[in-house]
Amino acid sequence: MTPAPTRDPGHLTLALPKGRILEDAIALLSQAGLPLTMPEKSRALRHEFPGVTVLELRNQDVPVYVDLGVADAGIVGKDVLIESGRTVYEPVDLRFAGCRLSLIREVGADGDITRVGTKYPRAARTYLNARGIPAEIVKLSGNIELACLTGLADAVVDLVQTGSTLRANNLEEVDVLFHSTARLVVNRAALKTRRERLRPLIERLRELTSQ
Amino acid sequence: MSAFIPEGTRDVLPPEWAQREAIRAQLSGLFSRWGYRGVEVPALEYASAHHPQDAVAFKLIDSGGQVLSLRSEFTTAVGRLVRTRYPHGPFPLRLQYSGRLWLRAQNSELGRLREFNQLGVELIGVESARSDAELLHLAAAALREVGVGAALEVGYPGFVDAVLEDAGLHGAARAALHDAIDRKSGADVDLLCGQFGLGGDTRRTLHALTDLYGGPEVLDAAQALARGTRAQEAVAHLRHVAALYAGPLLFDLGVSRRYDYYTGLTFRAYAPGLNQPVLGGGRYALEGGLPGAGFALGLERLMRALAGDLPPEPELVLALDLAAADAARAQGLHAELAWTDDRTELQAFSAARGIHRWASTQGGTLTFQSATEVTL
Question: DSSP secondary-structure letter at B315?
Fold first, then answer.
C-alpha cells in the first residue's frame, strides 16, 4: 500500500539490505542513537522499534524503496546505488563494506574486448562508452568469473574485495571502474519533511565515521 | 480488443472522478480570481531536439512523415503560444492551464505514471522579486484551497553554478560537481575534488553546499559562501522574496537540477507523509529571452495527499417520471430516470445502486417513497 499519510511525522522508515551489511548497519545506527537491535532470526521482513521501522530488503531494492519514498532513508553500497540509476540523496559515506568494481580478464589476455559479462550492465556500459570500446554486454547473475574462463565473455566487470577468487581462477584486474563503500541514502522529500530526525542522524553518522 | 491498458495509464472511476473534477474547479477558480486566464494548447506538438523533455517524450509519425511529440510539459507549449499569440503582451501576462501530459521513459511506479495530469500557471513578461513572491503566495493559496497542508521550499540553481564559477570550475568539471552537489553526495564531491585538484577552502565550500537546506538560517550560511557578485545577488534576491512572502519557507540552496534551464528561483511543495513533491515551479527564460515563471500541481499527487477525502455528494433518487426528476433536481438532489414500469426491476436496481428513495409527482406535487417499501 501507499506510505500511510497518517504516520507520525517523526516516524522513520529505513530500508536495509539483508545479510552482512544489515549487522554492520544496525550496529552503526544504534551507535548513532537509534533504538535498534539486531532482529531475532525469523521470517519477519519488517521490524518495528520505537519510532523506527526497519524493512529488510535485497540490496538492489534499497534504492527503489528510498527513491519512491516508501522508506525515508536506507543503507546501500555505492556499487548498487550507481547501478540503480536512482536520484536519491547520499549525504554520508559510511566507510564500511568496502570493495571495488573492476574490469577483469584472464591472466595474459591481450586481445580486443568484444563481450563483457557482468552483474552491473549500466556501470559497464558507461565505462566502455567512455573509452570507445564497442563491446557487447552480457547480463549475468552470479559467479561472473566463469564467463571469462568458459569463453562466454573475453572480460568481466565485477566486484573485487580481496582478490583471492581472482588468483584462484587465473584472473587479474586490468582496471578499476570505481571504489565502493556503504552509503546512507535519503529520499529527496523526506530529508526536508523529516529533517528534525534525519539531520541529527546524518551529523552523528558523520562523526562516527569521522568526516 | 484487449482488456488491458498500457503500463503507466489508468482508468478513473466515478467517486474519484468527482473528486478530481472538484479539485480542478477549485484550482481554476482560484487562479481566475488572481487574474490568470485559461488557455488550452495542443497535445500534439512538432518534435524538436531543443524541447527540454525531447528525450522522454512519446513520438508519433503522421501521414506526411512529420515526427510529432505528445505534450510532455506545459511551460514550453504555453511559451510557444505566448510568442506567437501575444508577442507584444500586454505584460505581465497571467495564464493558467490544465490537462494531460505523457512521458515515454517514465516507469509505471508509485506516483509516477506515463499519462498524468497537471494544473498550473505562468506569469510571463516580468522579472522581479514581487512577481516571484506572487507565485509563492499563489502556490500556498492553491494548496490551502484544496486542503493539502504542505511546506514550500525554495531553491536557486544559479547559486550553485555561481559558487562553482567562483571556484574556477568550467565545462565537464562544473557539470560533474553540479550533479554530485544536487545528490548531496559529500563522498562524490571529495572524489571529484581529488580528480580536479581542488583542496582547502574550495573543497570545504563545495561540501557546505550539500548541507545548505533548512529554515531561513540557510540564507545566512549561503551569504557566507557567496564570494562573487552573481552568488551574492542570488542570496539578496532570495532574502527580498522571502521578506515579501512573509510566510514560513524552507530553503535548499544545494538544489542544482536543470541549472541551465532555470534562470532564477525554483520551488516545490512537500505534503507530510508523501515523499514526493505535490507542486513544483521556477523562473525561466522563453525562447527569444522573454522572462517567465510559473508552477504546476500534479493532480494524481494531490489525490494521494488527500487520500480518500471524498467531497459530500447530494443524495441520488430514482424519479418515476420526468416532472419528478426536474422537481427533485430543483431541490438540489441528483435524479436518475426510471426506464420501465417493472417495479421488481427498479427495486433490484435501486438496491444495487444504493438508491433509498423514489420520487414521483402526484397531482403536480413531488412526493417521495422509500425504495424498500414500495408496494408492488
Answer: P
Residues of A in contact with B272 (CB under 8 A): 5, 9, 193
Smallest CA–CA separation between A186 and chain B, in Å?
10
Residue with cell 531536439: B49
Query: How many A×B Cβ pairs under 8 Å?
Result: 80
A192 and B250 within 8 Å at the Cβ level: the answer is yes
Burial (CB count <10 Å: 0-12, 13-18, 19+), residue B58: middle
Does A89 sit within 8 Å of B307, measured CB to CB? no
pLDDT of B330 reads 94
- CB contacts of A199 in chain B (<8 Å) are 214
Residue B122 neighbours by CB under 8 Å, 6+ apart? B74, B75, B78, B79, B82, B93, B94, B95, B96, B97, B292, B293, B294
Contacts of B184 in chain A (CB under 8 A): 89-91, 186, 191
Give A31-80 pLDDT, tens digit per residue. Answer: 999 998 887 776 778 888 898 999 999 999 999 999 988 999 999 999 99
Looking at the complex, does the CB of residue B110 fall below 8 Å from at least one CB of chain A? Answer: yes
pLDDT band for B121, please (50, 70, 90 cuts): very high
As to burial, measured by CB atoms within 10 angstroms (0-12 exposed, 13-18 middle, 19+ buried), residue B309 is exposed
pLDDT tens, position by position, B318-362: 999 999 999 999 999 999 999 999 999 999 999 999 999 999 988
Write the residue in A7, A68, A192 that is nearest to B273 by C-beta: A7
Q: What is the ipTM of this complex?
A: 0.88
* B185 contact A CB<8A: yes
Class level of CATH domain A12-97+181-208: alpha beta
What is d(CA B216, CA B239) in angstroms, rounded to the nearest whole number? 9
Q: What is the CATH number of domain B1-148+271-313?
A: 3.30.930.10
Where in chain B are the domains?
1-148+271-313, 151-263, 316-370
User: Do B1-148+271-313 and B151-263 show the same overall fold?
Assistant: yes
pLDDT (tens digit per residue) in B148-163: 989 999 999 999 999 9
Residue B76: closest CA among B296, B253, B338: B296
* CB-based contact A192 B272, cutoff 8 Å: no
pLDDT of residue B362: 80
CA distance B19 to B117: 14
Question: Per-residue confidence at B179, pLDDT binned at 50, 70, 90?
Answer: very high
CATH superfamily of this structure's domain A99-179: Periplasmic binding protein-like II (3.40.190.10)
Give φ, ψ of A137 to 5 degrees: -115, 130
- Record: contact A9-B272, CB cut-off 8 A: yes
Architecture of domain B151-263: 2-Layer Sandwich (3.30)
Mean per-residue pLDDT over chain B, rounded:
91
For an interface test with B, which of A14, A192, A205 has the most B Cβ atoms less than 10 Å from its Cβ? A192
What residue in A sits closest to B179 (Cα-Cα)? A87
The segment(s) of chain A belonging to CATH 3.40.190.10 are 12-97+181-208, 99-179
Asked whether the beta carbons of residue B304 and residue A2 sit closer than 8 angstroms, the reply is yes
